[in-house]
Amino acid sequence: MLASLFTTSCKEIMSNLDEPVSSYLELKESSKILLPGETTTIVATCINDNAEYSYESSNPQVATVDKSGKVTAVEDGEATITVKVAASADNIYKADEKQFMVYVRTPDLFDPLTLEAKADGTISISFTNYIVGAPELEEPIIYSINGGEEKSVTAYTSFAVKTGDKVQFKSKNKTLARRFKNGDYYYNQYVRILPQVQCAVYGNAMSMVSPDGNWHLNREIKENFALAYLFASASNLVNDETRNLTLPATTLTDSCYYYTFGNTSLERAPELPAKEIKKASYMNMFYNCENLAKAPVMSPTSIDDYGCYNMFYSCDVLSEAPTINVEAVGARGMAYMFRYCYGLTSAPAINVETVGADGMAYMFRGCTALTTAPAITAEDVDIYGFYEMFWDCTSMTKAGDITIKNAAGEGAFCWMYDNCSALTVSPAITADSIGYKAGENMFTGCQALEKANAINVKKIGPNALQNLFASKPELEEAVAVNAEQLDVYACYQMFNGCPKLEKAPATLPATTLADHCYSDMFAGCTKLEKAPALPAQTLAPYCYNYMFGNCTSLTEAPELKAATLVDHCYCAMFWSCVKLNKLTCLATTMADYGITWMLYNAGTDESVTTRTFTRSTANNNWFVSGSDWLDAWYVPTGWTIDPAITAASAPAHRASSAYKAAPNEYVPEVAPIQSEKIIKREEVLPEPEM
User: Fold this and answer.
1) Is 180:114 a contact under the CB 8 Å cutoff?
2) In whole angstroms, what is the distance from residue 117 CA to residue 217 CA?
3) Residue 291 Cα to chain centre, angstroms
């Protein structure tokens, strides 16, 4: 009761004041350091024990706060929580506010680069090519042991450590490495930390290139080559069991991590958060890290020239490649990226808008444990974009489909699956157009190939599918080639010499043909019984030359609808198709060698009892001849022309048709255009200067 009287008396007294008093808002704590995921509750007091408070975070991405004052740390950074109390309804005390600072700190981000010794030994710091006449290091390298005295060095230094010692490194330089010219020669200049005893590495590598000392906030590498070679060939460098090495930079420069961890013993790579990978930024970054089992988490949107070139070369135990979804890959941007990663068993789908010249060439070269090639989706692929991409992936049995929205350039898929000896199913290929030799020899050495998926390409360039499935001993069915327009040698020898091939596509729909476009396409497919329909009515020189040569089981030929023949268009088309017993040819206008050897040795098998050649009723020029080298309208002896041509209906000049002496043996035309480019390209791609 006394308390009540006292309270009432206070209120009455305060209500008589001219101005409201302070609320006396206080916070029990003014700041807190949290780890991501941790929570704390703000404790506020004021003159009114029953007052209500409001809370607001300046940076909810770093820390959130609810209406009760509970703060939750989200990610590294700083946030200000504003705590407010409203003025009292009776105007006794004023509104007020206080700030509560939240510091979300992952130790691996806030601690400088640290090496923890696992045994007694030494650590050295070397300064390669920091010589007279060369650029000088602007600031010293600073190190301390167990938080003790900081020591500054600018020249080679070696110091002793004991088991458990923690050595921290930092520097205010913008870069520790560069390329410079001295006289007529260029030199690579760099700082290297080399432990002579096994050391675990953790902490923030940005402590080495942060002029303002705020490495925990620094996300930008400012100069080229910044951390190049920093731990190169440090074979004693390992990961810590619980702590992590962090490379938090989101803005990179050219060659900034060039060979930084090459030939170290790291087992897991740090996360790489940068979206734009600059020229050679990650080139050789984990070169020959034979113990690296876990690739970094990375989600770039663009990879510049040489950006990830040789990045994981010979990382023998790396079993899974990181996801790759990028807008653009520059020239050689991902070339050799996983070369000789013998333990790599899987790779996620590759989604990219544009691939530059040699952009993914040799990318998985020699990944002998890889069983499935990833599906690939792109909008445009420049010359040799996927050249030799899966060369010697000898365990691969299946390849993901390839979808190119627009165009694939010269040699884009050339030798792509070279020597994938276990591959049984080829990928479907979809594109608007493919360029010169785009798929030449794409499946060379894939001797186990049993099934080929469709090729849906509107425009097929010169030699683009040359030898694509040639000499595949297990291939039983020819892939559909759904093209509208063919360039010279487009499908040259595409299925040549496939002894088990029994089925061809129902039709080859292209209506725009070019020289040799289907030449030798099914030659030597000795089990093929039915040829695809050929709807084109405008022909090109040699377009069907030797197309079904030596298809000794062929019994059904396509109807040849074209009225006007051109040079060598049907030359040797059905050479030695010994079981062929009927053919329709509606031609009415002859050309030089248009039908020479078309039916040479055709229909000669003992099982064939009748042979019928159906002609256009508008052409009475046909006649039977024992010669196969006539430059005229003829069919071989033993074939019957239908409708029959009587002596009265035959043109008067036919008997005097000239013919040329035949050579002893016919050799089909095989010389592709620009033949010098058939030779396999050199494996080694040119590297940029550091």
Assistant:
1) no
2) 27
3) 24
